[in-house]
Amino acid sequence: MLAETPALDPLPELMVEPIVRAALLEDLGRAGDITTDAVVPPGHTSRLVLTARQAGVVAGLDCARLAFLLLDPGMRFTRHVADGAAVAPGAVLAEVEGSSRALLTGERTGLNLACRLSGIASATAGLVQAIAGNRAQIVCTRKTTPGLRALEKYAVRAGGGANHRFGLDDAVLVKDNHVAIAGSVAEAVKRVKARAGHMVKIEVEVDTLAQLEELLTLDADAVLLDNMTPETLAEAVRMVGGRMLTEASGRINRETAPAIAASGVDLISVGWLTHSAPILDIGLDWAG
Question: Where is the Quinolinate phosphoribosyl transferase C-terminal domain (predicted)?
Answer without folding.
Answer: 120-285
